[in-house]
Amino acid sequence: MPDPRRRHEEGAALLTVLLLVAVMAVVASTALERVALATRMTGNGGAVDQARAFADAGAEVARLRIGDLVASNPTKMTLQGGWMGTPQTVPVPGGLASVQVTDGGNCFNLNSVVTGESEAALKVRPVGVAQFQALLEALGVDARQAQRAASGLADWIDSDSVPQPGGAEDETYAQAERPYRAANRLMADASELRAVAGITPAIYDLARPWVCALPVADLSPININTLLPDQAPLFAMLLPGKLSVGQARQYLAQRPAEGYGSVPQFWAMTARGGIVPEAGVDQQVKLTTGFFGVTVSVDVGGTQAVERATIDARESPARIVRRSWGAGA
After folding, report:
1. In the beta sheet, which residues pair with residue 92?
2. What is the per-residue burial (b if ≥16 Cβ within 10 Å, else e) of 210-234?
3. CA–CA separation, 96 vs 92, rounded Å?
4. Inter-axis angle of helices 143-157 and 126-138, to 10 degrees?
5. Which of these, 93, 114, 138, 149, could form a disulfide with 122 (CB 3.0-4.6 Å)?
6. Cα(128)–Cα(238) distance, integer angstroms
């Protein structure tokens, strides 16, 4: 007769074996999942590196083409030739790249609110501050808010610690939930504007498409031969209180197809309407373009990369002075 205790021991042994098999299955499954994840991550990393390499190559090609474009007519840059804003698609191994070139100087240069030869001696430039305020007002920002934002920007960049009327220095930023200090240097990227007192999220979102941070403290170098009618606020900001956005749009629509041949020729057009620029502003507008913006979008096997570069073409050869990556770059 079978021993009942023996059957009990056999059942316990079987249960133990089943538990061990289940544990081993879970461990094996986890290990395989991690190996698969590591394999995918390695593959994705390689695809991203490849996409970035193609984007870098695209920016370099654009730099050379821009150099040729500027050299073809060093005294005047116009929209002729369809170079601005037109995406150029280029096949690359495993995907496509798209390169788009824009006039990188047709924006408000945030660094123009100061003047100075060194970071230790940056002083407020009233004309630049007034233009930023005028731009914000042209975009629909309340005059008081616009004044506060413009003063805050000047204090953020200038070298001293004395706030402008309505502006802010270290003592203001020290009271923030996470205290910080004013930069007291030129901005490297327009996204820094978010840290400036008086710049609300709504104002930043409104202003971002219209501003830039060029690597110089010059007044915004607006090329009147490439400025589009849709960019009329950038023209109106040059003449605060004298020119509405609607008037600016009309003047831009009247531009000759071949562009203006001289700056006095352009201002003669506004003078006929009784609009005369202040001293200094008349030379702020340009017939040439010194900075170009390049956007390279690459899609390789479903992996996407976007590179944005600023190219300085004021001297030959043109050179890339800034790169950024990502959809929000």
Report:
1. 95
2. bbbbbebbbbbbbbbbbbbeebbbb
3. 5
4. 140
5. 114
6. 9
DSSP state of 210: G
Per-residue pLDDT tens over the stretch 91-120: 988 899 999 999 999 999 999 999 998 878
- Contact between 92 and 136 under an 8 Å Cβ cutoff? The reply is no
Question: How would residue 41 be classed by pLDDT, with cut points 50, 70 and 90?
Answer: very low
Count of CB atoms situated within 10 Å of the CB of 277? 17
Q: Is 255 left (phi over 0), alpha (psi -120 to 50) or beta?
A: beta
Best CA proximity match to 289, nearest among 107, 60, 110? 107
pLDDT at 313 over 70: yes
State the pLDDT confidence band at 90, using cuts at 50, 70 and 90: confident
Token pair of 168 as six digits: 């802010």
Query: Sorting pLDDT into bands at 50, 70 and 90, what band is 259?
Result: very high
Spatial separation of the C-alpha atoms in residues 118 and 100, rounded to whole Å: 34
Return the residue matching tokens 């079987």.
14
What digits encode the pLDDT tens for the residues 51-82? 889 999 999 999 999 999 999 999 999 999 99
Residue among 62, 105, 117 at smallest CA distance from 319: 62
CB-CB contact of 306 with 117 (8 Å):
no
Region class of 247: left (phi > 0), else alpha (psi between -120 and 50), else beta: alpha
Assign 139 a pLDDT band (cuts: 50, 70, 90): very high
Place of tokens 């402008």: 164
The Cα–Cα gap between 92 and 48 comes to 14
Contacts of 72 (CB under 8 A, 6+ apart): none
Beta carbons within 10 angstroms of residue 269's beta carbon: 15
Within a 10 A sphere around the Cβ of 273, how many other Cβ atoms? 12
- What pLDDT is recorded for position 329? 44
Q: Is 204 helix (H, G, I), strand (E, B) or coil?
A: helix
Handedness of CA 286, 99, 211, 161 (dihedral sign): negative
